[in-house]
């Protein structure tokens, strides 16, 4: 499926670009969640929450990344925040109370987008994520 | 007239026919269209934006219509088939006959969650997982691992006692019956059952597991029980609510049905307990 491969390649490229800008955060690792003193929602929408800080770590052998995203289009229901597992975007969503869910753990809110990314890695048991909007 | 029965009371023949109709919908491709629709709403329904299938007052009428569509599809294969319901307050064990090899098959194995027996196991060759969020194409379950206990009848009763159908802000932060039944608040009924089953049932593509329909048929029955307990309480909001389906507003994706059209289940089916 060439279309899927192209999408995956684009997603991976986007993830790499993000990484370049997030180098300082990589070093701080676990501190990022504690720091959640975050940027303004770059979409300009007021969802009643500021966007959480970016993160970038290797969890159980897989790279998980999260960052605020501009545009916040239709897909970014995290209120302008995107999460990636090995470069493939994981659909995440922020609940009204500030908790998070993802498409692979949709009925089980966790406190932060990093926790949603880790829950996804646990759930995937090594399987490759199908990048949305393919799913 | 369609009668929806407790799955625990089905005869061997009723189970066989239900399973055969599911397999035929799967074979023809119609089954996966339901999975796709559900995932689209799961991804699209947001607390601060448009919300229809989940985290909103229309969670209950939306799933009632969704199940009706699915039941009609089953009946187009075998007119004798109706949707059974799973009363998880009563049949709350991995050893329940629900999970028998003659019905839905059992738990997934520890290593990768793969369901190894029953008509929907990957080994049967009849149940490929096509609409998926990851690379795995086999049905998975991890019964009781992510959360130990299914809701109890006392917990269900505590939610049925709530007299208000739903409340502003009409989302996952709401008080009232709908959100406590859905599970974003309080003792957590519907959401917890998805988590208890695990595998695809815990994801946006949860209808990949046939138990989805039996779970939602019971949630739907609890709505009917709530109506019976609170005859003076109706669906809200009534009108003029942005992003939320009001009582007389059409619901996507059908656009030809409103919550008001779906309040009385007896227009479409009865339950074995209705008497």
UniProtKB/TrEMBL annotation, chain A:
MF terms in GO: copper ion binding
One Pfam assignment: MelC1
InterPro entries (alphabetical): GriE/MELC1_sf (IPR023199), MelC1 (IPR010928), TAT_signal (IPR006311)
GO biological process, one term: melanin biosynthetic process
UniProt-annotated stretches for the region Disordered: 31-80
Signal peptide annotation: 1-27
Bias kind Gly residues: ranges: 69-80
Annotated TM spans: none
Keyword line: Copper, Signal
Low complexity biased stretches: 31-42
Highest taxon listed in the record's lineage: Bacteria
Family per similarity comment: Belongs to the melC1 family.
Protein name per the record: Tyrosinase
TrEMBL record, chain B:
Keywords from the UniProt entry: Copper, Metal-binding, Oxidoreductase
KW Oxidoreductase (keyword) present: yes
Matching Pfam families: Tyrosinase
Swiss-Prot/TrEMBL cofactor(s): Cu(2+)
Domain Tyrosinase copper-binding: 54-71, 209-220
A molecular function GO annotation: oxidoreductase activity
InterPro entries, alphabetized: Di-copper_centre_dom_sf, Tyrosinase/Hemocyanin, Tyrosinase_Cu-bd
Protein family (similarity comment): Belongs to the tyrosinase family.
Record protein name field: Tyrosinase
Species assigned in the record: Streptomyces spinoverrucosus
